[in-house]
């Protein structure tokens, strides 16, 4: 394989790792396109590759960043690889330090790599506190030290998890290494680009600070608009084929002696899908409320037909029309102010019962039913039954779970509610973004 | 005509299409690789115009397929001339002629060309514009695959129609919905954004004969300020800049001033909400002072 082709294959692999879908046919087109441009001119090469490899507007910045990182001088490439190596060495050092610090009776605690790295990110005061606690535990006498060690490990894990959930911690971008040192060096550098946006995308929605809300909303608005327009389009689609109107056809063709020269068709009926959104605004959900309502609001503003309900212990219909159109902050504030159910405990069962009793007309075969909650509810079995009942009446039931997906495992409420709905995570803005992608490809 | 990047630029500029090197390169590659070109971008940036300009450059017919919800193959590709077929049957009965249904009634004589078939059967290389593809259903997109990748269509009763001359295909989309991977894979991709102030001033000068360089520059700078600073439902695009410049010229203004701006706001914003927002959050005076900071001609 020639050098240029090899380079192109590597670059395409990098794009794929970054989430840009590139088919073999497109790779071949890109190679052909390079024959028609001056390959010594970096800008021409960029445009040629971009036009053949990137087919979505929102992927262009990713492509541009990847291009700028990948097509660099050999010296710069070497520097990237060196940086990556340094980073890895630094990480090894941090892991070794964490293993040294987190011990029980001279035996290292069994922790995941991510947890050890989380520990290394703690400030000195917290580290000291943790060490002190472990030291005291080590010095005390135990009947079964092995058993106590596993209890201790769980305690440390919980402590680290708590800290992870506070807003001080920024999760790394979930990009996996490829094993190719050249690509991994580019990936590592790309991982450090646009940290603000990255941080917001993967941050727990609860911990997004007030001053970061405008940027977060902007990101969310971009994809929610796409999602909404897709849902809106589904309203107009009908699987019904055009049918001939026999009575009309005969009437129309009397003048031709009854020979059906001009066919008359029944007009296509538009089947409108209705979106019903149930938003949990109970105490445990307060931290997400602002984002959930923002999501609701950005959908509602572009959709023609949407019924939104807020619930905690009770259900309340939200009159979207009464919200100010031009100012989101005011809209949410007004909604909070007006809602009687904001901040109470969660009872999905009760809310669904009220929905079925008072608003059953919104649940039709054309309805997509979306419920946003963390599943922490009273009477979960009954709630699942009600949800199942609703599932039988509507087109689809979608559960947006605000718990992080890694916490779903073994959660009783999640297991039960999952059986009556299609469940998606809704913990970060990236989750919402993924959700819209899933929806768009449906 | 041998197409090179340089003469493509010259020909496009001669047709009044002032654009960047990136757009020229992408169009050039699509032509060279004989691939359909999928053009996206906000409304009014010149996506449709690109197809018109290419038709003018190649001195050929522009065949336009305007997409909408519910568009099907009967309206886009072909339709059998049903009336003519029935009359032929009746005529054959009267004249006691034998007609072989398959052979005689489903021949090209009874085939009504719709835009796609017309482009394929055109003896000259045509420019086919499939406008606002995002407004059609997914089924229609899938139906386009054969046309876009093999430049042929299969008509069950007739057979396969191959393109006499591979047409130049331009598809436009406003990004109202995600297009299918299959469609995107078959096309070269071009996203047209808003141009720089200088480029937009050049476009205005090319499209509005007689406009002074100063006014063109002021209009471009003002629109640039508005796009950057005012979040509205529909941002003024290049077409709005041109309309605004024409309106200012028609009213005899030689440069921007508050009264000129106030009397022509309707050319920039096309809905009441946006106009109200402009008046409330920007206003003519503020826009003018910001334009002066931005515009080199105003110093």
Describe this structure in words.
The complex is a heterodimer of chains A (442) and B (299). Chain A has 18 helices and eight strands. Chain A has helices at residues 3-17, 24-34, 42-53, 60-70, 74-101, 113-121, 124-139, 145-164, 181-191, 195-202, 213-236, 246-252, 286-302, 328-338, 348-358, 380-393, 412-419, 429-441; strands at 103-104, 107-108, 274-280, 306-311, 315-318, 367-373, 396-401, 422-425. Chain A has a six-stranded mixed sheet, sandwiched between helices. A two-stranded antiparallel ribbon of chain A has the order 1-2. In chain A, helix 17 links the parallel strand 7 (396-401) and strand 8 (422-425). Chain A is flat and about 105 Å long. Chain B is an alpha/beta fold and 299 residues long. Chain B has helices spanning 5-14, 21-32, 47-57, 73-76, 82-94, 101-105, 115-121, 138-150, 181-185, 197-207, 213-229, 238-250, 258-263, 265-268, 272-281, 283-294; strands spanning 37-40, 62-66, 78-80, 111-113, 127-131, 152-155, 159-162, 168-173, 188-191. In chain B, strand 6 and strand 7 form a beta hairpin. In chain B, helix 10 (197-207) packs across helix 11 and helix 11 crosses helix 16 (283-294). The mean pLDDT of chain B is 88. At the A-B interface, helix 2, helix 3 and helix 11 of A face helix 2, helix 5, helix 9 and strand 9 of B.
